Give the backbone structure.
Amino acid sequence: MIPEDAAALVSRAASTSFAEYLGRDHPGLLPSNRSTGTLAPVHGTAAGLAPHATTIVSMTFSGGVLMAGDRRATMGNIIASRHIEKVFPGDLFSVLGIAGSAGIGLDLTRLFQVELEHYEKIEGTRMSLDGKANRLASMVRQNLPMALQGLAVVPLLAGFDTERREGRLFSFDVTGGRYEEQEHHSVGSGSVFARGALKKLWKPNLDEARAIQVAVESLYDAADDDSATGGPDVVRQLWPVIYTVNSAGARRVAERELEAAALGIIERRSVAGREA
């Protein structure tokens, strides 16, 4: 018979939530608890002290879902990075995009990845897509004190639902509110312009190749009107980061595909400009 103290220890270790374990036994390791003390109100000025990531777009297509992000991070009026990546695989059947405070967002992403892996090891099965969305909402809610200082993270989650056999996507707010979106969605400073492009370009039952072109063009439109969003950089050979997810799992779109899509858009618009 296992002693009571040992049984309690096993029960604690077997929790399906890695974030819950950290919050209970090592709270200082959570992204929302990295501060060494209580932050005083700064009326939003903290937002200009750390790199911010923008812009993320996501859409469904025939047989799956896609997520794309530009490569620029800003710090106030300065371009902090032209190479940042904002879209990551959560597990085999999900992808996560981050907009907002880049450092906290990257920590949140890594924690979410470990959370899904930990659950799979404990339970012997993958978490459902709804379960992933709920776990991510809880993590975002834990960051609310930092969000009130101007260091908010607003993620976007997309994945292939293996039970419903379709792609689905979820948006969140800084309080941890979770919302299932239909067809397409965008977050970040350039989201208004990207969403306008998606409304015109997205069609039901897009194939994967056409969905990739639509994603690149929507980010191109966002970069055209939002200085915090980086467009395709031909000189530096920098293209968006795009993942597709279908019944075969998540796939990062190859650089050569993104280059062809971006150059095609530039060429078409150049021709249209000369003919105008």
Observations:
- The first helix runs from residue 4 to 13.
- The chain is about 40% helix and 25% strand.
- The two ends are 83 Å apart (CA to CA).
